[in-house]
Design a protein that fits this description.
347 residues, alpha+beta, Tetrahydropterin Synthase, Chain A, three-stranded antiparallel sheet, 9 helices
Length: 347
């Protein structure tokens, strides 16, 4: 090796014993030029010290519930037990259902109808797999109009008159599934169907029949018509009955109708009195005819005796109201009860 080579070798810097990056000492420290001594850079989406957002969230949760920055395994187990207990309570709470005697439970599984629960303690899959809707099926009553006597409910009768009608509808739920899903507003639908059926029936009868004599027939026909309409809607509703509570003329002419009604009642009372008197006279005539038949039968057996007896009985009835005394005996002067003479003073 010549001098040039030796001088070139002498000019080269000596490598550090710590490695090819230089600056290394016996302690392994450096001036920051060693990349292996640098802390790892965080990747996108990670928090301090390379932790992910989920790791950081769990760390904070464990720290809040008594952990020490994720270093205590006992705290992690407590969190898991707490989560398991909450899930168990949720399953028990949403899978057991107490159905009352007047209720039915409609079960939907993932949004589709799955069945109906009868009264008692029933079990289903927990929510949100199964959802139970409790439906009260007891008999309900709807008044039309709803505010009673405060408003009029005028209808046109068959003889072109107006009537103010108030009535009630009794109904219950026969099929909870159809009641829940077939109609958007089943309660309001019952009222509208009842009013439609009632107006159709009132339009077929005259005013007097609607106010009194045919109330029962009207109620039955309205109930039948309502049931037919609701069945065509697949409503799941059963109509129990109709009760007409008020059937009056409009308030503007109520006084005139009261006068007419009073006159009709008075005329009916006179007719009833005449019929009673006619029946009384008929009964009396029948009695007299029966008595005459008996007398005639006796007369045919003994005409002379019967004539005398009839004469005596007739004279007894005639003379019973007079103050005269008749004595049929010879040489006897009848006593005449003359009033005493009134003498004037001085005579």
């Amino acid at each position: 090796m010549d001098e040039n080579d030796s001088s070139g070798l002498a000019a080269r810097p000596l490598l550090n014993e710590g490695g090819p990056w230089g600056g290394g000492g016996s302690g392994g420290g450096g001036d920051g030029s060693n990349p292996w001594n640098q802390p790892p850079r965080g990747r996108p989406g990670r928090g301090p010290a390379g932790r992910s957002a989920i790791d950081e969230l769990l760390r904070r949760g464990r720290a809040r519930f008594g952990g020490s920055d994720g270093q205590d395994p006992e705290a992690g187990r407590l969190i898991l037990w707490a989560i398991g207990g909450v899930l168990l309570l949720w399953v028990l709470w949403t899978s057991s259902h107490q159905i009352e005697p007047q209720e039915r439970g409609v079960v939907t599984r993932l949004g589709s109808f799955a069945g109906t629960l009868e009264p008692g303690l029933r079990f289903t899959f927990p929510a949100p797999i199964d959802v139970v809707h409790k439906i009260d099926i007891k008999t309900r009553e709807k008044n039309i109009p709803e505010n009673g006597a405060k408003s009029q409910n005028l209808m046109l009768t068959g003889d072109q008159n107006m009537i103010d009608l108030a009535y009630a509808v009794r109904w219950n739920i026969r099929d909870p599934e159809r009641y829940l899903y077939q109609l958007a507003e089943p309660d309001e639908t019952v009222g509208e169907v009842a009013e439609s059926a009632m107006r159709a029936e009132i339009a077929r009868v005259p005013l007097n029949d609607a106010m009194g004599s045919q109330r029962g027939q009207i109620e039955n026909r309205v109930q039948q018509r309502m049931q037919e309409i609701l069945d065509s809607y697949r409503s799941g509703i059963a109509v129990q009955g109709i009760a007409i509570k008020q059937a009056d003329p409009p308030s503007a002419v109520v006084e005139a109708f009261k006068s007419v009604s009073a006159a009709q009642q008075q005329a009916q009372a006179y007719l009833n009195e005449a019929r009673a008197y006619a029946q009384q006279l008929g009964a009396k005539a029948e009695g007299e005819a029966a008595a005459f038949d008996k007398v005639y039968a006796e007369y045919k057996l003994a005409p002379e005796v019967t004539r005398r007896r009839m004469y005596y009985e007739t004279m007894e009835r005639v003379l019973a109201k007079t103050d005269k005394t008749i004595v049929e005996a010879p040489n006897v002067v009848p006593y005449l009860p003359l009033p005493p003479a009134q003498l004037k003073p001085g005579q």
